[in-house]
Model the fold of this input.
Amino acid sequence: MSVLELSQLLGNYGELIGAIAVLITLIYLAKQIQHSTEVSKVTSYHEAIGQIVTSALEPDFAGLTVKSQSDEPLSPEEQVRSFSLASAFIFGHEILLHLFRKGQIDEPLWENIFSNNQVYLSGNMILPVLKSRPGVLSQELLKLIESRP
Done:
């Protein structure tokens, strides 16, 4: 085998090794992107759940919900607090609805969250606030609530 043939053979091996290295790098990057996407989904889910839980665990949430359900008048301060808590509660559900529509939350999980919170979402504290929100997700959530018994 001549020096030229050996050089060509080594060059061919080098190209093959380079192509394999590029393929391995692309596979690695695809896995990293997939992992990043999964982390993003989980983060969005946790932020939405956190929004719901934080608003619902506020001491005023229960009192204002009871007061609203019994049609007791709210003071101006209570009205503002009620609106803020309702907005936070709604916003968390809007995020979850969006994630569900994009296939990032499975149906049983979404259904469980929605069913367990429907009594609040359709109550006198939350529903009027939801009806006043013009956004697409707000309107989709409203339709979903109104379509359920």
Remarks:
- The two ends are 85 Å apart (CA to CA).
- The CA atoms of residues 3 and 9 lie 10 Å apart.
- The chain has a mean pLDDT of 91.
